[in-house]
Every structure is written in C-alpha cells, then in structure tokens.
Fold these 2 entries.
Entry 1:
Amino acid sequence: MNPLERALDARLRLVETTLQAGTVKGYRRTARLFLEFLRRRFPAVTRPSQLRRDPHLLGWLEELWTYRTTQNTALTSATRGSHVLQLRTLLELMDDLPQPPPPGLVQRSDIPLRRYPLPRPLTAEEDERLRQIWESSTGQLDTILYLMRLTGIRIGECVDLEPDCLRHLGGNQWSLHVPHGKPRSERWVPVDDRVRQLVERLAFLRSCSPNPDPKFLLPRPSGRAVLMSALRQHLCLAALDAGIQRHIVPHQLRHTYATTMLRAGVSLPTLMRLLGHHNANMTLIYAEVTQQDLHSQYQQALERPRYQIPAPPVMNPPSLEAILATAIRLLDQQTSRIQIQDAHALLLLRRRLVRIASVVRKVLPPEGDTI
C-alpha cells in the first residue's frame, strides 16, 4: 500500500465515526474508483502531493462520464456528483499531512447539477381505487400500505415504527412518532381516527406473531429487507387489482400524500414538517400542481382577495355604556371585600371610569346611529 492509499484509508476510517454505514460505503467506492484509475493511467503517482488537477483529476472526471455499471448503464448525474463531492471531502481531510495534495484539485464547477425526477403522485382516480381496496382489507401488508398513504412516511420509516409509536395528545388529537429515517431526525405526524385504527390493527397482528421483535411494531421474521421487498411486491399486486397498468412504487404514496395536503390548504412550512424535509425545494418537488389546481387557486384569489380589509363591525353606543356600567358595578362589589389601602386604588379607578362614561355619553351619537 503506497502513501496515497494509506492516506485515503485513514480518512475513510475517520468518516466512519460520523457517517452512516450506507454513506461510508459510497465513500469507499469513490476511493476505489479513483485509485483504480490512477493505477491504470498514472502508476507513478503514489503520494498525495503528486496529484494535479490536470491530468489526474480531470482525467478521472472524464472517465466518470464514460463509466459503465455491471448492467451496462451510465452513471446518473446524481451519482457522479456524489463521487465528486466525496473525493473532494477526502482530499480536504488530507490538509494536515506533512506533504498534502495541492489545493483546488476539485472545483465547484466539476460537480454536475443534480436532476431530480419529476413528482410521481397517483391520480385522484388511482388513489381512490387503491384506498377502496385497502379499506375493505384487514391483511397486514394492505394495512401497512394504507398507513403509509395516510401519513406520508417513507417505507423505511414505516417498517421501523416502534410498538408505542401512537401517542395521545388529549381529546381527539393523536400523533404518530416517526423514528430516525433518511434525514436522521425524528418527527411527529398528526393523525386521525383512521390511522389510529390501523395502528391498533397492526398491534393486534403483532401480538398474534409467534416471536415479535420488542423494538418494532411490524414483525420481521426474515429481516427488514425482506419485509420491504414484500411491501413493494404487494403494492404492485394491489395496483393490478385496482386496474392500474403502470408500475408504481411505495414512494409514490408519499408524493400523493404531499399533493393531497397541498390541495387541502396546508402551507409549505407545515408540509415540510409533515414530510420531514430540511429543504423547501425538496418539498416543492414532491407536490404536483396540475392545471386544475391553478384554475382553482386563481378563482379563489378572485373571489376572496387577501388585500381587501373586511368592514369593521357596527358598534352600538349603548353597548359601550353598558360595558362601562358593568365595570363600575364590579369595582363597587370588590371594594367592600378588600383592605383599605387596596380599596383606595380601586376608588381612583372607579372615578376615572365614571368620567370616561360621561364623555362617552356626550361624544357618541344617540342610539340608532352607527359609527
């Protein structure tokens, strides 16, 4: 192992202490691709200080564009961008070496723009047909998929729900505790009686399982990955039963939830909290705005424009006099119940109210007129 390989391996062990296992796996793959490129094209480069932007980094970036996976497919812009960012992080962590790599090897312009896929919510007809199937079913997989649709949680968050995930906030208010998921932060999602019934049904099905895991609400006798795969396959079967010919995935239920909440009048900051996003741009990608939504919002803005200030309510002068008279009577009742020093302050307040009442009778118009 040459000095460059040792330096990269040491930085990979460093990032392992703060990043998730899946992210560290991506860092290791980036380092492997970069080292394989150097061994094949520039075998003489064995130290970090020998790296140069041209031809080493630029040559590696060019190879990323032509790289083919085992399925003979090119890397997406998001994958290439992740490789470039991860290599830049590893090179920046080498600044404490006695002979560090020169600065500016990876520049901001080298990172390709990430092209997000278009939102894929279900249509209103498809959503209604699936919900009818799930409402009439008591099976575990149907219940889980219906829970995902009504709460907008990810499939990984759903399978990691805890047995006591449902919390009662008082009255008819319930909230679902979503564990640490993709954004590495937990959140609380308000739910209604339908979701509460689904969670109670899943808890009952869990009690019927021979060896339920005490950490999770959903039983996973064959592991987490097997349960997620079963959910994806069952969603495809439910889509066929609903007459949906195209292929759908569980994440489309999350897109459908976001679009439904937006059409119901939920604000963008609230929708961000419901979905667990840290960036408003991601929330906007999730929600789909159709031409029908545009016409609906346009008509609503014409009928009830926000810039029009509503007319103030009509005040009746005798009601103001009655309020002052009531306040004076209350002061008279309290004066006889408190001590002498406090009664003097109430007496001064009573005199002031009497003067205000006399001014009101002189200034305000007679009964029957309005201000």
Entry 2:
Amino acid sequence: MTATGGAGRSLLLWLAALPPALATVGVLWFSGSELAGRTPFSIGPPANIAEAAGLGSGAEVLRLLRAGHDPYVVLPIRREIISSTVTKASAVEAAVWSRRVQLVELLVREGALADPQQRHHVLCLSRDVGVGDIVEYLGKTDSAPCESGSAQAAVQARSAP
C-alpha cells in the first residue's frame, strides 16, 4: 500500500502545483511580450492619423499633423477602433467618434478645420452621431442646417465592402 499511496500522493502534489505553475508561465510570457513591444491583449498603436483620432489620442494626432499628415485624407481604420460599419474615415471624421471635444479643438487650433465645408461636414456628423459637446463647440461658428443622417451615411457608405 505504501507504493500505491506514495504514487497517489505524488500525483496529487503534481496536480496541485500545475495551476500555479501554468499561471506563472503565463504571467512571464505576457510580461516578456510587453517588454518586447508586443501588446497581446490590446489593439496596439494607431496605424495612421485617422486611427489616432478615432482612439482619441491627441498627442499622436498632433505629432502626425506636425509631421505633415493630411487630416482630410480618407484612411483605413481597424473595425475595433470606431465600429464595424466605419472602416474608412478621415482624421477629422474619426475625431467625432472619439467623442472628445478637446481633440476637435486641437484640430481647429492646428488649422485642420479651416475649410468651412469640411467644418460643416464635421458639425453635421457630430449631430448625426449625437456628440453634443462637439455640436455645441462647432455650432458657435456654423449655424447652417444639416440633413439628418446624411453625413454619417456618407462615411458608412464609403466603408461598405
């Protein structure tokens, strides 16, 4: 009985030690990945200025603007950043979906919304998306009416496969 009892106890000890050992290996793998620059459980850094705006990353948007990136160019955006129906947008449009009025203010300060037509488009998109802070901010200088839903529909149509 001692041979069987010893083997059973040994098996029990191994089974008890297995979950903490696997957890430790997982934490070490995750930490190593983070240190190596890979982010296994995040969407990663923005690929372009539109993604940076969609993520609400004002610092990255400012860096890319000052590096010469055009905030009006329509760029691909990963589905998880805005939505599965918006996969192509400009940085000024993506800024609306970030729902951060500070980002829109930054774009205005940097001259990215100097074009009255583009500014009006962003205002109408803000109304369609329901971002009251941005509507209020842009509405101070633009009171022209918007066709309800048309700005958002235009962005979504461009993203259609």
